[in-house]
Amino acid sequence: MDTRHAPPEGNFVNSGLDGPTVGATDWRSLLRRRAETLWRNTVETAAVDDVCLSAVTRALGPLADDAVKAVEAYAIGARQWSPPESTPARFSSRLDLILKGIEASADARLMPVAAEESAQPHVIQSELWQVLHKVRESAELSYSREQYLIELDRRLLFLLQNAGALVPADISSAVGVDKAQVSRSVKRLLEMRLVEREQIRAPLRLTRDGERLGKRLSRMAELRNRELTIDISEAELAEFFEAIEILLDRAIALYDQERALVQGGKSTEPSDRDDEDKQAEKVVIDRSRIIAPLMTLSAYFSRSGALAFKRLTGLSTFEAFVLSEIGMNPPIEWSALVAALARDHSQAARTVNALVERGLVSREGKPGRRHGRFYPSDEGQKLVEVIQEAGRQRSTFLLAPLEPAHRARFLSTFDKVRRNAVAQLARERAFAEIDRA
């Protein structure tokens, strides 16, 4: 076995005939040894031995099982592309990345709040956006087989079905979308005779046709919701909704702050609103489906982000997102960038080209928009640092009310939703391929 990664002398404490016990800091050595054993042996060995598993569990707690499975899956798969006799360096370097990822997750659980907060911006901003992007794509494929409605029209239909008659201002607050967009959606639904109202300012309610369609779509939504909440208990779900309500109030405060700055206000930091203001603007989230409150949270957070990034950098939200991804670990390959953005090639290309033309991004390699590698220019790097710092500050403010344990549970539940959303989208894409065949 390659001894370059053997644990340093003195890490193991002899415990006599029962074998060595391992300190909490040696879980990396144990997982590396486990991965190398599987990678080098043609026959898979049994599960990691009890002594090692116990040591890893003491160090990583609830992360231990996932950590062991991750390195085992990597080692077994690596035999297909990285034979032990020819590519030990490649195997080792990729294993290092996995172990660093596990370490980052462990630090987020064990380290003080300040360190934990510094690791959260991409979870809250980038990953929330990407999860909702996957959910939206799968929803378009699923609901279009019943009756095509754009996402906002469906959300209004579900909201009126669950909450009863509402005026447009209440609808706008509940979904986190500005009144102009809500008005256009209401107009479409009125024209389709799915909603009705007695006069222009009267509350909107579903017509009989709207109720019938709402019930059919609700059955589909319930099935999709069950898929997205697999492995999430009722108690866990209830706590998740409570956390979202807290975060939503903070997201609205951020949005109020950015609007004040645009309008010439002097405040430079977001602040908690007065209790009276909170009560007056309280948004009641839809707890019937897990995605609805995440969409509302994302809408308010994105609206404040759009104003913040425009104010600080002159970039749109998506331009700031693209530049941040390029600056994360440059240079980045085109295929990796598109995958990280979760957008189609055309939209990503237009944005990257615009950043290149503005002198914020440079490229190297073969000509053509879908080739080469991209990295920030000197000017672009300055904006990357501004974007990342703004992201850290915004996410720190957003998450501040959640105690560390509550925050960890919220992010754990969110990660389950993310995994379920990926599986759901894969299924809907497969159905779409069958329909086209």
Automatic annotation (TrEMBL):
Residue ranges occupied by any HTH marR-type domain in the UniProt entry: 136-237, 308-407
Name used for this protein in its record: MarR family transcriptional regulator
Entry keywords, A to Z: DNA-binding, Transcription, Transcription regulation
Pfam family for this entry, one: MarR_2
Species this protein is from: Croceibacterium selenioxidans
UniProt cross-references to InterPro entries, sorted A to Z: HTH_MarR-typ (IPR000835), WH-like_DNA-bd_sf (IPR036388), WH_DNA-bd_sf (IPR036390)
Key word Magnesium present: no
